[in-house]
Amino acid sequence: MRVEWFRSDLKDSQLVHLYENHDDRNTEQSQSYRGRTKLNEQELQRGDASLKLSSVQVSDEGRYKCFIQSKSWSDDNRLHWFLDH
């Protein structure tokens, strides 16, 4: 299974988090998200691909897209994250 979270509102779509084959694969992750993202593998097995983002910053506000792919299907979802400051 592959779960890819990225920013879809920026000129260069920034990789926020990549999970593939039971492991985080964040070598190409945007520097601004390094060490701040996490997927819960147990929740993922139940169909919950929520991304946990820690140390939230004003610059994190924006549009995010999640792409999920398995051997038998794929799907994507978009969300716009607003920060109240």
From TrEMBL:
GO MF, one annotated term: signaling receptor binding
GO biological process, one term: T cell receptor signaling pathway
Short name of any one Pfam family annotated for the protein: V-set
Protein name, per record: Ig-like domain-containing protein
Protease is among the record's keywords: no
Top-rank taxon, per record: Eukaryota
GO CC, alphabetical: external side of plasma membrane
Alphabetical UniProt keywords: Disulfide bond, Glycoprotein, Immunoglobulin domain, Membrane, Signal
Localization of this protein: Membrane
Chain spans, region Disordered: 21-41
UniProt source species: Cyprinus carpio (Common carp)
Gene3D superfamilies the record matches: Immunoglobulins (2.60.40.10)
Main subcellular localisation: membrane
Alphabetized InterPro entries for the sequence: Ig-like_dom, Ig-like_dom_sf, Ig-like_fold, Ig_V-set, IgSF_BTN/MOG
Presence of the UniProt keyword Nucleus in the record: no
Domain Ig-like as annotated: residue spans: 1-80
